[in-house]
Amino acid sequence: MACRRGCCCGVVNEDNARFLMLAVLIVLYLLCGAAVFSALEQPKELQANEQWAQRFERFTQKHNLNRTELETFLRHYEEANNAGIRVDTLRPRWDFTGAFYFVGTVVSTIGFGMTTPTTVSGKVFLIFYGLIGCASTILFFNLFLERIITVLAFVLKSCHDLQRRRPGVMPHDGPRGAPPPGPRNRDRDSLAGWKPSVYYVMLILCVAAVVISCCASAMYSAVEGWGYLDSLYFCFVAFSTIGFGDMVSSQRVTYDGNQTAYRLGNFLFILMGVCCIYSLFNVISIVIKQTLNWLLRKLDIFCCRGCCHCCPAGIAKRLHPRRNAVMPSGTGHGHFRARRTVSIETDALNESETDGGRRMSGEMISMRDFLAANKVNLDLMQKQLSEAATNGIPRPSVSNQNRQNGFSGGVGALGIMNNRLAETSVDR
Predict the structure, then answer these.
(1) CA separation for the pair 237, 217 (Å, rounded)
(2) Predicted structure pTM score
(3) Confidence of residue 375 (pLDDT cuts 50, 70, 90)
(4) Residue 356 in contact with residue 368, Cβ under 8 Å?
(5) What is the number of other CB atoms lying within 10 angstroms of the CB of residue 402?
(6) pLDDT above 90: residue 122
(7) Do residues 324 and 343 touch, judged by C-beta distance below 8 A?
(8) So what's the pLDDT on residue 92?
(9) What confidence tier does 13 reach under pLDDT thresholds 50, 70, 90?
(10) Pair 330, 376: CB distance under 8 Å
(11) Closest CA to 231 of 247, 210, 209, 242
């Protein structure tokens, strides 16, 4: 069906619009960051270059040295510095403990840059080692976030159960008139319906990251002799896996106090900090994606402003006014109507498999889901017509069963969920 206003629904969909908007915002973000850092750091750089030029000139004149020979000597020192040789004695980089610290920075994608392989065999081995190690570590970080969500869901469910069992609030065995425990009520006891809000998880991870960073900064300030703000700066650079390499912990040969305890604490702080910050980045990305969806709706970037019958945006508005709320219908004691905030789904973090890995929670319907749903409805209609021609009585379709059981039809993931709920209720 062609659009009356000549819109370009088939050309510009929500995924492309979101991608373009995000690309533009990232470019603007980079330009603003470059302007700020250039204004803050360039004067310091020019001052340092001027001071070095004056010191170099005074040194050559004082000791009557050839400028070219001195520059050659300094280049040799820079090569030695890249190999790990410093004026102050540092711990060996390629003994077992130093190598373990190095591979930890590799698989965690921190990459401080102060230790790098120099042999050809070491560089080749690093390619294959980092490929498997980085992928495994990223999987570990994702599983860590899933465990966090599961723990929060368990806590929310436990608090709700305790509140239900309080005297005078609700009987211990459930509300009056509630259906007896059975297969249909098993889902209430699971954690699937207790997944916390995206913003709640983001708040928890923010608090955890701040606490870990503050504790780690106190340790680095006391042991490494850094300032507290410098220690906080190192924690963010290391935990976010940026890893500039200007400040690196646990590089001295000896430390005052228990050296083994400090290196173990350093390892644990980096591990916990990277897990929290990486998980926080994933959750913030979901919030950014929801913000982009809100901006797209506000800017009416989809053609015809959702009023056209052929536009996916208009169909989505009519079919799913609220995709993030599941409201079962019914008037019995065991039914209720409730609204939930946006819940964080594990599949939403790693991209939904049922939607081809393209949609997350809170997104609008895509053209692909719309066409797939129309195809299913067409198949059901053809089947009904065929049975009516042969038997004279059409069989009830899945959509009719959904209406009889109080579940409205849907498109995409919500439609699949409604169909499953309807089939379950019919079987039971």
Answers:
(1) 12
(2) 0.65
(3) low
(4) yes
(5) 21
(6) yes
(7) yes
(8) 83
(9) confident
(10) no
(11) 247
Q: Are 8 and 2 in contact (CB under 8 A)?
A: no
Report which residue type is found at 422.
Answer: A
120-164 and 96-107 helices, crossing angle to 10°: 60
Report residue 99 as tokens.
């190598």
Structure tokens at 42: 């360039």
For the four alpha carbons of 60, 65, 71 and 76, in that order, the dihedral sign comes to negative
CA atoms within 13 A of residue 25's CA, in its CB half-sphere: 11
> Phi then psi for 197, rounded to 5 degrees?
-65, 155
* Strand (E) or helix (H) holding 383: helix 367-391
**Would you say the C-alpha torsion 268, 269, 275, 278 has a positive or negative sign?**
negative
* In contact, 388 and 382? CB cutoff 8 Å: no
Q: Which of 56-65, 270-279, 330-339 has the lowest mean pLDDT?
A: 330-339
Contact 240, 277 (CB under 8 A): yes
Both tokens of 3, joined, read 């659009």
Residue type present at position 327: M
Q: How many CB atoms lie within 10 A of CB 114?
A: 19
pLDDT given at position 3: 47
Encoded amino acid at 2, one letter: A
Smallest Cα–Cα separation from 272: which of 312, 222, 323, 216? Answer: 216
Structural Rg of the chain based on CA atoms: 30
> Which of 395, 392, 394, 399 minimizes the C-alpha distance to 416?
399
Q: Which of 150, 282, 270 lies closest to 205 in space, CA to CA?
A: 282
- Residue 305 Rama label (left phi>0; alpha psi -120 to 50; beta): left
Band the pLDDT of 115: cuts 50, 70, 90: confident
Is the distance from CB of 349 to CB of 202 less than 8 angstroms?
Answer: no
Tokens of 133: 């190690």
